[in-house]
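ok posting inputs for the copper (II) ion job
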Amino acid sequence: METVYTVKGMTCGHCVSSVSAEIGRINGVTGVRIDLATGAVAVTSTEPLAQAAVAAAVDEAGYELIGAQS
Ligand SMILES: [Cu+2]
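and the output
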């Protein structure tokens, strides 16, 4: 399954790498695709993810999760 989140504050490829790495550590995550221009973060996973866990990972990277679409 895939869930698309919106993350605020990413400005360059380094930001993208940090967010990808942190989200990639969550159990069940199989992929992360980030569109830097829009802040859209598409996360593929084998099971539904708790949004709080994704928000915590984004926060750990130094950015802010401001929403999710499905
Ligand atoms: Cu950056």
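notes: The chain has two helices and four strands. The chain has a mean pLDDT of 97.
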